[in-house]
Amino acid sequence: MQQLKKATLKASKAVYGVLDQGVLSAGTFLLAVVIARTSTVEEFGAYGVIFTIFTLLITVYRSMFVMPYLLESGAAGEGAPSHSLRQGMISTSFVAAVVLFCIGAVSAAIVPGQLGIALLGLAIAAPILLFQDCLRYVVLHENGIRRVLVVDTVWVGSQACGQAIAVASGNASLFVQLVIWGATGGISLIAVPLITWARPTARVVLSFTRRALVHGKNLVLEAVMTSGSQYLSILALSSVAGLVLIAEVRASQLLLGPLVVVSQGLLTSLLPGIIKIGSGDVRRLKRICLAFGAGLFIFVVSFAGLLHLVPASVGSQFLGQSWASAFTLLWPLALAQAFGGLALGATLGYRGLGLSKETSVIRTLVFPLTPIAMFAGYALFDGRGAAFGLALASGITAAILWSHFLVIYSRRRNHNPAT
User: Fold this and answer.
1) SS3 125
2) Which residues 6+ apart lie within 8 Å of 343 measured at CB?
3) I want to staple 152 with a disulfide (CB 3.0 to 4.6 A). Which of 23, 61, 140, 182 is the partner?
4) Hey, is 272 helix, strand or coil?
5) End-to-end C-alpha distance for the chain, whole angstroms
6) Could you give the CA distance from residue 315 to residue 322 in angstroms, rounded to a whole number?
7) Rounded distance, CA 288 to CA 263, Å?
């Protein structure tokens, strides 16, 4: 009976995790839909550049602040005091957000034209959303996924209202939409429990920074080598191929967006438990990681096939003229995402074993694969070739990650057969 209750609780957390990720992604999807319907393909490509930069920022932010917080909290065990850890994470991420705003504002002043205006909107929105994201994980650890769902629902609801007003009043420019996107993220912080908040001080910032760097320096390097390799390559290609290619990439990413909802939702709900399992039951850890990675791979490929059943008339209602562009690169980007899901299963295993250095070393070694494969593919077959180059690089990376993880798993089992 006790085991049934535990299984039900885990299933409930997984469902809420996917539901929350769906709500969270709805905010980003809503922004993209409004921009797609009110802009040209080139303007949508400019938005793609902005969103790519934001994706890089949030990846690094989570690696530097969130993952060290979760790893240390998980290692401390159930019921361990977490006030100082919480205070350190919140204070440090807040200071980093202020610094990021200053850097973004200066960058926006240097870059001319429409892209500079969009960068200013990102400079306002990104720090707010990155700080909010850190608070979400504190709430997840201390209050559970249901409370996180409340925070994200407030954000999406207020954003929908703000964007509707902007469209109705004829002020739905890219800059305004980005500001609304970020400002409503700040509004959602009213749903964060009062006990979560902590006053930033120089002492706790320095203390948490020292502790976070133990894992953070490896995780940030890994993040840059992973997402950075892909997104920096896309940004570099845009300077050669133009904004139309970025528009096609972003449109395809939007079609595959529900897959991110499922994968990140499951990852959010599984990660705290995986960290605990890894310290005592490596066999179970391996089974979960294999099921997670293989399941995501199959799900991504199946979903990409189902997208072809959606009538073009229905799709154009969401993405306007960008709907047709999305199918240009759909399959190669779907394969890249499927291999990424497979790699995510292995990465989950490394997290469970508390091995941040290994993944950072592997990601560093394979970093050149993505730009080389994408630029070679572009030189031979234009944009579609670049996308297939990304898929090839993702597949090789997944194979290397799993091969190394299985070697470590065998060593752990031989060292401690009881596990």
Assistant:
1) helix
2) 293, 394, 397, 398, 401, 402
3) 23
4) helix
5) 25
6) 9
7) 14
DSSP characters over 3-26: HHHHHHHHHHHHHHHHHHHHHHHH
pLDDT at 405 over 70: yes
> How many whole angstroms separate alpha carbon 260 and alpha carbon 91?
29
What's the Cα-to-Cα distance from 158 to each of 16, 142, 184, rounded to whole Å? 21, 25, 6
How far apart are alpha carbons 44 and 32 in whole angstroms? 8
Backbone angles phi, psi at 380, to 5 degrees: -90, -40
Cβ(300)–Cβ(256) below 8 Å:
yes
**Which H helix or E strand runs over 168?**
helix 145-168
Taking the C-alpha atoms of residue 275 and residue 295, their distance in angstroms, rounded to an integer, is: 20
- Give the list of residues 6+ apart from residue 306 with CB closer than 8 angstroms, or none: none
- CB-CB contact of 368 with 85 (8 Å): no
Digit-coded pLDDT (tens) for 244-290: 777 778 778 777 877 766 666 666 666 666 766 666 677 888 888 88
Contact 24, 159 (CB under 8 A): no
161-196 exposure pattern, b = at least 16 Cβ within 10 A, e = fewer: ebbeebeeeeebbbbbbbbbbbbbbbbbbebbeeeb
pLDDT in tens, 217-230: 777 776 676 666 67
Both tokens assigned to 392:
């090839």
- What DSSP element (H or E) covers 268? helix 257-278
Phi-psi region of 213 (alpha: psi -120 to 50; beta: other; left: phi over 0): alpha
Structure tokens at 103: 């850097």
The residues near 304 (Cβ < 8 Å, ≥ 6 apart) are 256, 330, 331, 334
Nearest Cα to Cα of residue 376 among 398, 397, 391:
391
